[in-house]
Amino acid sequence: MTEKPLLLRQVQIFDGEMVLNGAVDVHIADGRIAAVGHGLTVAGADVIDGYGKILAPGFVDLRACAREPGDEHEEDLVSLSDAANAGGFTAVVVNPDTTPGNDDHAVTELIRRRAREYGHCDVMPQGALSHRLKGETLAPMGEMSEAGAVCFGDGDRPMTSPRLLRRALEYARGFDRPIFTHAIDPDLAGSGTIHEGPWSTRLGMRGIPAAAEHVIVARDIAVTQLANSRLHFARITTAKSVALIRAAKAEGIRVTASVTPWHLTLTDAAMVDYDVNLKLIAPLRTEADRQALLAGLTDGTIDAICSDHMPVNIAGKALEFDYAAPGAIAIQTALAQVLACVRAGELPLRVALNALTAGPRRVLQMPSARVESGAVADLTLLDPQAKWTLDAQTNKSKSRNTVLWGQELTGRAVLTLFHGKVVWRA
Amino acid sequence: MLPQVEPGQTPGTDTLPQAPQEPLRHLLGLEHLSAEQINSILDLAAHMKAVNSRRIKKLPTLRGVTVLTFFVENSTRTRMSFELAAKRLSADTMSFTASSSSLAKGETLIDTARNLEAMGPDIVIIRHSCSGAPALLARTVNCGIVNAGDGSHEHPTQGLLDIFTLRERLGDLRGKKVAIIGDIAHSRVARSNIFGMQKLGVDVHVAGPATMLPHAIEDLGCTAWPRVEPAMEGADAIMMLRIQRERQGNDLIPSSHEYHRFFGLDEQRLKLAKPGALVMHPGPMNRGVEIAPEVADGEQSVILQQVENGVAVRMAVLYLVGASRGLEPQG
């Protein structure tokens, strides 16, 4: 590493658990944190004023779509890395439902190699759980683990077979990888597009009942216990799911969960304009659900906040709500969205930052990231007060499918370091 | 029966009542209209109905205005009613029909709409199988949008013609009980009527098998029943909704036969309602399923008046949307 040394002056450190009192200087050299202390001076260093800003371990996103291979017009591993960095992320788990799907070590290797060649972000593939993501037979998890897959799951495809899920959970134990699931009962969800409730009735939309999620959460908790393995609910949306996971954790069952910024900030009332950018695979739920998700995050029931970044080309969204492709880009706005909860007094700052840093690392059993001398410099310097707007100038994604497009946001990463290299600077 | 006309209006002249204070830029649904707006549409419709009884059923008010019917779901009757309404206001009409699936596969709705907009229509009347499509269009193109039915959301002109028919027969609607029976969950007619009638003080009851009652329907202010009898009891009017035979595959009801036995309107059940209660249906009817033929053709039925009133109500709506956009000829 021949990068110029960096000196961050007067930053407040978030150590994974809390924001430490008092500002310090941090010296970064040769890809690592060289020193943390007061009044540091480094000859020839690039000095960055960090006053009023927080230095945290690089954010880890447990769920994003890279669209590569197959749909590079919507996103690719380079644009995803850039968008992730601008959002403060230095590591991202990418979904296996690409074209072709990541159900084979060759695809896993391709993703790893392409991301490594660019070298801005640790792109961690989720390998498919089943062959061709069909939910019928196990995919070669061993070979994919060797090639760099960090977890297994069929992306957004519902697991219709509890028997296969059991086998996957058991098999994955030998490779020490968690299984990621999208909890939905497709039969009960039917052709629903938004949360089934007063708003679906008012708007004349087919609903996805909350029960379609938590019947599967309850089932998968039981199957995880049966298989004595680790399962991660990739995004939960209902109060009942939070309660089920809380009880399972209390019983010692090894389940974890994440939530998206959308579900922490919005409810189904936002569907009033039929905005296709709020058509999400896991629908926005009620205010009571939102409050339960915030409480679940605060008490540790929910481990992580994932961006659920889903780039969709304009042609996929310039359609009637029923026909539009689901999903929204969020990797660049996730921090601002979550900080809105913090400013509203709904979420402690330490909880929000934990869910973006230490929480997701715990789900993947990665070594905990520290901001201390000798640690690898995967770091995010964030300014909770910075105002900015996601628009054609600032957007790093190849897609623009978000309701936040053009809106002024508060809070952003102003500097992101990956292995000591400046990969993003606002 | 003579049409009700507000005092000071002379039926059969070409002078129209004053447009309401709040202009009607689009008609997307009845949910967001005020009682005053609904009443002013109905007052104007009464005037239009008088025009429709003249030998020359035509007003020059929308001369030079182009009205496009954009039907992405088949409905010959509704389209004809709108086209007739437009022609009676001297508008030029053109029509575009497509199946929504073929549209979805090829051109996007927005592309199609922009292409149509480039031909310069002033008012677009849209029927679509997807809820929210008219709202999408209203955001996309610079024309007045009239919703002719979107998915399971709203069918505002049907609601208005139903309310017009009720008002014509019952006068002041405050405190009147109306029962709406059928597949409330999938009915845009039910929603527009629930929203619109309640604004005029109607006590709305909805009923049907609970598989057809959507979640939290009572949040909309109406009373819901999983059997029809309590809804029909003492009602001033009963509106039967069409049962979509194709929806039976959707597990909502066991059979048409069973539906008729427990939820259909026959002479016996009609006796539960007030004597002389109105029998309504938005059409087309499934005789022997939701409604017995003798009731459909009986003395209490106002089903054909609903159709007649539909043209007058649509004339009023097109006029008001045109007027809000400064399209009516000056002087």
Describe the protein's architecture and organization.
The complex is a heterodimer of chains A (426) and B (331). Chain A contains 14 helices and 18 strands. By secondary structure, chain A is α/β, with parallel strands linked by helices. In chain A, strands 1, 2, 3, 4, 5, 16, 17 and 18 form an eight-stranded mixed β-sheet that branches. Chain A has a four-stranded parallel β-sheet with strand order 6-7-8-9. Chain A has a four-stranded parallel β-sheet with strand order 10-13-14-15. The two termini of chain A are 23 Å apart. Chain B is an alpha/beta fold and 331 residues long. Chain B has two domains: 35-155 and 310-324, Aspartate/ornithine carbamoyltransferase (Rossmann fold, 3-Layer(aba) Sandwich); 157-307, 3-Layer(aba) Sandwich (Rossmann fold), CATH 3.40.50. In chain B, 37% of the residues lie in helices and 14% in strands. Chain B has a five-stranded parallel β-sheet with strand order 7-6-5-8-9. In chain B, helix 1 packs across helix 6 (156-170), helix 1 (35-52) crosses helix 12 (303-324) and helix 2 packs across helix 12 (303-324). Chain B is globular, with a radius of gyration of 19 Å. Classes of the chains: A alpha/beta (426), B alpha/beta (331).
Give the end-to-end Cα distance of chain B, rounded to a whole number of Å: 33 Å
As residue ranges, the low-confidence spans of chain B are 1-13
Rough shape of chain B? globular
Query: What can be said about the biggest beta sheet of chain A?
Result: 8 strands, mixed
Helix percentage range of chain B: 25-40%
Quick one: overall form of chain A?
Answer: globular
Total discrete domains of chain B: 2
What percent of residues of chain B are in strands?
5-15%
Q: Give the beta-strand count of chain B.
A: 9
Uncertain spans of chain A: none
CATH architecture of the largest domain in chain B: 3-Layer(aba) Sandwich
Largest sheet of chain B: 5 strands, parallel
Provide the β-strand percentage band of chain A: 15-25%
> Measured on Cα atoms, how large is the radius of gyration of chain B?
19 Å
Order the strands across the largest sheet of chain B as they lie in space: 7-6-5-8-9
Mean pLDDT across every amino acid position of chain B? 90
Taking all Cα atoms into account, the compactness measure Rg of chain A is 21 Å
**Could you report the average pLDDT of chain A, rounded to the nearest whole number?**
96
Total of helices of chain B:
12
| CATH first level of the largest domain in chain A | Alpha Beta
User: Helicity level of chain A, as a percent range?
Assistant: 25-40%
